[in-house]
Amino acid sequence: METKSTNRKTFQLTENSQQLGELIYEHLFSFKAKIKLQDSEFISIQPVGFFKTGVSVTKNGAELVNLTMNWRGHISISFRDGQEYMLKPTGMFYNKFVIENKAGERLIQLDPKFSWSKFDYNYDIQSDKKSQDILLILLGVYASNYFISFMSGMA
User: Fold this and answer.
1) What is the DSSP string of 122-146?
2) Sequence-ordered list of residues with C-beta below 8 angstroms from that of 155, at least 6 positions apart, any chain
3) pTM exceeds cut of 0.85
4) DSSP per residue over 41-81, as a string?
5) What average pLDDT does range 124-150 have in this prediction?
6) Could you give the domains of the chain?
7) Please, which pLDDT band fits residue 154 given cuts at 50, 70 and 90?
């Protein structure tokens, strides 16, 4: 599974050349975005809070997911139905990300690949077959981009 940046604002999630969903940023340096799943309405992503360290994910005005970053750089992904996940940077230079469930089991690994010629990121994604939730994977890509932007001083 992988995501490819098509125009530095749009990330297309594909598996075996089949598109599964898209993450579309409003502007090039914006944290506002939308997720489009197959045959679905748009899901909105909006930073919230004084320092924009929280993110609200809504569909038709109803909040579905809440993302918050802690002081260690971990991003909590909390669904309204009680499911909770944690995106954590890993690797010597925090160059990879993993999504773990509450029990600390690694479900998804995201490996960003930076292209200097296009000046954008693509992601290789490893996921165990139990966690094929496309929304969670696209939120992981969003959270990874969010982390990279904060750590590089773009925020």
Assistant:
1) EEEEEE-GGG--HHHHHHHHHHHHH
2) 52, 149
3) yes
4) -EEEEEEESTTS-EEEEEETTEEEEEEEE-TTS-EEEEETT
5) 86
6) 2-151 (2.40.160)
7) low
